[in-house]
Amino acid sequence: MPKDFSALSGFSRRDGALYCEELNLRELAQRFGTPLYVYSHQALKTALENWMRGIAGTNHRVFYAMKANSNLALLKFFHDSGTGFDIVSRGELQRALMAGAKGNDIVYSGVGKSREDIRAALRADIGCFNVESIPELDRINEVALEEKRMAPVSVRVNPDVDAKTHPYISTGLKNNKFGVSYDQTVALYQRAATLPGIRISGIDMHIGSQITELEPFVHAADKIFDIVDALAQNGIMLDHLDFGGGLGVRYTDETPPSAETLVKAVSRKAAERGFADLPIYFEPGRSLVARAGILLTTVEYLKPTEAKNFMIVDAAMNDMVRPTLYQAQMPLVNCTQRDAANLWDVVGPVCETGDFLARSIELAAQPGDVLAMTGAGAYGMSMASNYNSRGRAAEVLVSGSPAAAKRSKISWLWKTRFLRTHLFNKQFFDVHFP
Ligand code: LLP
Questions:
Q1: Alpha carbons 404 and 401: distance in angstroms, whole number
Q2: Is 128 labeled as catalytic in the residue annotation?
Q3: Residue nearest to atom 16 of ligand 1 (CA)
Q4: Which residues form ligand 1's pocket by a CB distance below 6 Å?
Q5: How far does the centroid of ligand 1 lie from the alpha carbon of residue 244, in Å?
Q6: pLDDT tens, residue by residue, 140-159
């Protein structure tokens, strides 16, 4: 068991059994079947409070990057707690609106917005488009004029800063597809200022994900403030700065700064540069949800071979793709405590050699045991697919305080076992939310 399982807010081990708040995880697995994503309301609150402590007393705002986990119950939690949403598609727009967000609570990122995406976002009166190229700016202008509206925009700058993270999730280097070249940014703003359908609102950046050091953030902020200065000299004033997301979490032994530390460091830099009053938007995804979720999976077979020991479980790369896509190491813990650990490759039923949840890890488990993968709340379910025509995992949100143990309740989220079996090919935003 990873040393810090009990340090995961919302999860604990008691008398040998694993719990999410007041609910025994093995019992949850029996009741709802596996693979099963389980989220803790308490853990979501803990993560959000950390961000909120950072922005307290300022005019900064948090926009949850829902690509990390777009489950409607979670979105409702974030909306009710006062966050806005960072979206990257029309499906996410629809979900944000379903969760109760108003246009002004939404910022829209991404390199490939279609005309239909732009039109839908304009009609929803969103707070800001984060623009990533000249042709996109021109397209937004055209659609805005057709719609007889002004589109509020920020330009996403590529600050060419190394976020020191996995190459697939680094976004702020000049050979990445994201953002506008640093040196071309001022010219792009000058062009935007001449377009009748465009209202210049802010400036935006996002340098990567699972960033565990403070330094790249502060360095990138400094570079952005140079541009804000240059824009002011050209008479272009901004009403906000969007700092993106990217703060990492602890999966095994990483030691990222806290959200509060990050916000304060960026705010200090803003004050130093004379922008103390400029509202800063933050777009965290992972740091709000990763540690609030676990993935439960049942051991089907043990298959020791001459070369390796395979533990075959019922969750696969279609349920959780991070280990194979990013070589992510996410701890697996047995819900039943056992002795005599062995070295195992924990693999799923999908027909690919790349279908694994963990490789060469020490684990003691028997067929029928339920394993919990920790840190699975971010980019788990939201990246799930129906590969091999497999159904999708169900999800439950647990909310139960120790003071109200008997009243602990489970909220079924929008995916029930029924939906899992019968509707798994539907676009997720078509599914009715109870
Ligand atoms: N804002 C923008 C414009 C983004 O592209 C992203 C993430 C975020 C905010 C949120 O970043 P976060 O706080 O979650 O790091 N699937 C990968 C992560 C991809 C992140 C993509 N962009 C993974 O599982 O590690």
A1: 5
A2: no
A3: 379
A4: 65, 67-68, 86, 109, 169, 206, 209-210, 244-247, 283-287, 322, 326, 379
A5: 9
A6: 999 999 999 999 999 999 88
